[in-house]
Amino acid sequence: MHVLEKSIWENIRGGDLRAFELLFESSFKGLHNYATDLLKSSPDAEEIVQDVFFQVWEKRETIFIHTSVKAYLFRSVHNHYLNFIQHRKSTEKSVEFIHGEEGQSHASSLVNTEYALDQMIAADLEHEVETAINSLPQQCREVFYLSRFENLKIREVATRLNVSESTVKTQLYRALEKLRDLLKEHLKDHQN
Question: Looking at the whole model, is its pTM more than 0.85?
Fold first, then answer.
């Protein structure tokens, strides 16, 4: 690992959000192009690359990189791609079963039951998201509301709250990270 890369990685492991943003900005395009070549789908590629970066940030204290950060990121994208393909195959098999001859009568009852369940989960999730937003620190909550519900750009939010654009980005990132963790837990609870 080069000295500069090692320094950036050590800062990230220490929780330096700016160093993480620099890594994201400098690596995203190459990783996205690589994932798009694998998947032949830009939106799926973007989702995979974002998942890799979220995982890197969440597990930064326990990740030890011996080669290079770039190699680690590309390997992570490849592993996420393999998981994505595996998940897609198992989903396709489930759909084939539901639409197959043996599943015809079962399929319609499944659809009705799943719709009712989806409605309950959606109401529960909406309540949890609202609670999570309200539990954010005041400035973080204000940034999130202005950005997501009033559709203001980062510069506009910074002007409205009289703070720097980097403060807005940091607060928005923290809000999204907390909500993402909540959604992960919520989905995990409903999959069990």
Answer: no
